[in-house]
Amino acid sequence: xxxxxxxxxxxxxxxxxxxxxxxxxxxxxxxxxxxxxxxxxxxxxxxxxxxxxxxxxxxxxxxxxxxxxxxxxxxxxxxxxxxxxxxxxxxxxxxxxxxxxxxxxxxxxxxxxxxxxxxxxxxxxxxxxxxxxxxxxxxxxxxxxxxxxxxxxxxxxxxxxxxxxxxxxxxxxxxxxxxxxxxxxxxxxxxxxxxxxxxxxxxxxxxxxxxxxxxxxxxxxxxxxxxxxxxxxxxxxxxxxxxxxxxxxxxxxxxxxxxxxxxxxxxxxxxxxxxxxxxxxxxxxxxxxxxxxxxxxxxxxxxxxxxxxxxxxxxxxxxxxxxxxxxxxxxxxxxxxxxxxxxxxxxxxxxxxxxxxxxxxxxxxxxxxxxxxxxxxxxxxxxxxxxxxxxxxxxxxxxxxxxxxxxxxxxxxxxxxxxxxxxxxxxxxxxxxxxxxxxxxxxxxxxxxxxxxxxxxxxxxxxxxxxxxxxxxxxxxxxxxxxxxxxxxxxxxxxxxxxxxxxxxxxxxxxxxxxxxxxxxx
Length: 522
What we know:
Order of helices and strands: HHHHHHHHHEEEHEEHHHHHEEHHH
Shape: flat
Strand order of the largest sheet: 1-2-3
Low-confidence stretches: none
Strand content: 5-15%
Distance between the termini: 67 Å
Radius of gyration: 33 Å
Structural class: mainly alpha
């Protein structure tokens, strides 16, 4: 409703009932969305215009059902006729994104290396410490355990720690190291948030509201998988939204999602006892520094879920601070999502259905409208060009060369199956035009640009099939025509290509391959 509310506000329109409703509300709102209102011009993307108008339409239809008098509000037919469905492609600042992710990765590794080995010692030492004992800074685990015992589990400000017996002077770096052993604060979790966002492809909201209940382990076919699931609140028809899932295989990589998740759970374990109610179940749980935004003493716990104050932009603020402290240009959740989309698009060769599944979308159009970068569109144009040339080759070869439905693991460059070609656009065969895909079907064995398919068993099966085809063509075409067109290719196939791949193993494998018939030679 934000678009309609904004329109009513700037236009000064107040509606208390059907009788107060302007008859041209629908048309005026549409004019405003398209930026044609001269008194209050706006610049909105096509995607945003459609989104705002779609929400307006839903509200109006609901009002029509409630009371027929609301039908005074007309819904303009075909409001976006002639406009493209897609918005302009998004621009991913790769340099900024890469710098931020590099910093996040380095921070994750350094934090885990420094904190994780000492956590168990901190927890066990804390259970044995007595309030009031002196602090020895020589052992960080023992030191932080004693400080926490002296303050009932809470880590006070540096000035209060300085006054404890046995501490004496404590530098800011020493205090920071002890504080990280005690618990994370809001900004400490940002590197883990960014790396997990890249692993999962989640939007910011589902990831920041991830709970411990949403993390589980599964063992399909005996292989461990860590699964995370969370609700995307603005998706789906229910109040909870639509569930987003991501599964990660077990891995010993230092930045494997399973390892990041295990560390964050271990790091936040101690402070979960201080969290109230559902807050204790939030994954990105952290302490709030004393004297910070809450201006209070003692232990205070919050999380990225915004349960306590409904401030949903705090994670963005933490990311901004993370970048600012390192002198980096800001790159946040949206850039992560775009980079994830580009990676999926590249790995799946532009599969829109796979992109929809990986991004957790219900509609194909969402990914095509909102997650298209310039790189992805260039890749699509190249794929379209390839499909068009393959179609042209199929037509000009009278259907003999059809690579459109070939298996992805089969070579598709050569004009004859079983071969691959070094340059199908520069064929030396008679009658072929440079710059056009070669259509010289059946001539590959005698071509200097030809090579056998990398799968030698498949190549052998096709070679033997092609040899039979040559022999059949000799009877059909007559000796003179066949000699001019195919003799050189036939002899090369029989004397060179077949012996080169005709091993015992290849022959046994070739016998098991089911082949489609080859088109006849003309």
